[in-house]
Specification:
single chain; TIM Barrel; 2,3-Dihydroxybiphenyl 1,2-Dioxygenase, domain 1; 2 domains; 9-stranded mixed β-sheet; binds 3-phosphoglyceric acid
Length: about 325
């Protein structure tokens, strides 16, 4: 896959932005970086788009900046000339698609039905915008697309996606990323409230990673056998024991290891919407995957330990769902 498209997938969440003045571009760029969302789709809905793309791509090389709401080949040319590294269109416009393909710039056209998907596949595209996502049937429609098209194509649902429904989209195996404007609302940009934008971007990024505690694994160590300790904990907490070959679970939150597993004390299992994205995020904090522990399901990593230990505990990531 093209490097820019890969980057969009790694971040997983694309702010769709409307700027009324190029003067808003720099403070917006700073807010995106500080809010851990180093990606932007600047829409051609205002005359400030071209200049804003130029400023952000020049001043913030770490931000993957694209142009949205591109409705003609002229706009595509303008956006590319200004430095856009990808082009997004609301519908499937073969002329715009062809122009971008010729210029070797990733194009993400909007589709909402199988005929448009097949046209896009014919033209060699593998990532499409699903627009308008919520009013076109939302996650249910994308699940139905997974049947005939499998892993041939993945989608960026946009339009009505927000902090309440993004997890439902990001947990689907054919969703590349989501797009939306909720973390860069016009009202905050017009008010010059960039710390508000930064906060919403950061919240959106954490929501897209979707971390939660799955269970804690406790190494039996020298302090006794797993069996009696699992029974003790089960009676104390009123949770059932589920015996397995290498451990006994007490309810869902506690895994008592029979032989010492990874980690000095045990392990902490963290659930996430995407192990791939979580690994990218963790790498910024010095944690890297233990390659022999990686498990795959439906084309995605479903499980991986990371190293080093955290306070004597190994950490593993599990994909939700
Ligand atoms: C777009 O152009 O992609 C949409 O207008 C963004 O949709 P939203 O405002 O509902 O997030």
């Amino acid at each position: 896959m093209n490097e820019t498209l890969e980057k969009l997938g790694e971040i997983g969440i694309i702010p769709v932005i409307r700027l009324n003045s190029p003067e808003q571009a720099k403070p917006l760029g700073r807010a995106l970086i500080a809010g851990f969302l180093s990606v932007a789709e600047i829409t051609f809905r205002t005359s400030a788009a071209r200049e804003s793309i130029r400023i952000i791509s020049k001043e913030f090389p770490g931000i993957t900046v694209g142009a949205g709401t591109v409705l003609s080949t002229d706009q595509a040319d303008e956006a590319i000339e200004a430095g856009a590294s990808y082009i997004v269109t609301p519908g499937f416009n073969p002329k715009v698609v062809e122009r971008c393909v010729q210029k070797n710039v990733p194009i993400i056209p909007g589709v909402s039905n199988p005929s448009q998907i097949e046209e896009a596949l014919e033209m060699g595209l593998e990532v499409l915008k699903f627009f308008p996502a919520e009013s076109s049937g939302g996650a249910g429609t994308l699940k139905a697309f997974a049947g005939p098209y499998g892993d041939k194509v993945s989608f960026i649902p946009t339009g009505g996606v927000n902090e309440r429904n993004l997890a439902g989209y990001l947990s689907l195996s054919n969703v590349h990323a989501v797009g939306g404007s909720w973390m860069v609302p016009d009202s905050l940009i017009e008010a010059g409230d960039y710390s508000g934008v930064e906060r919403l971007c950061r919240e959106a990024r954490y929501l897209s990673l979707g971390f939660s505690l799955l269970h804690i694994g406790i190494n039996a160590g020298e302090d006794g056998d797993a069996g009696p300790n699992a029974e003790l904990f089960s009676s104390m907490l009123g949770l059932p024991v589920k015996d397995g070959s290498s451990s006994a679970f007490v309810g869902k939150p506690f895994e008592i290891m029979k032989a010492n597993g990874r980690g000095k004390h045990g392990h902490i299992a963290i659930e996430t919407l995407s192990v791939e994205r979580a690994l990218g995020w963790f790498s910024d904090f010095g944690f890297k995957p233990v390659s022999e522990t990686i498990r795959m399901k439906d084309g995605h990593i479903s499980f991986a330990y990371v190293e080093p230990l955290f306070m004597g505990f190994a950490l593993h990531l599990n994909r939700r769902g």
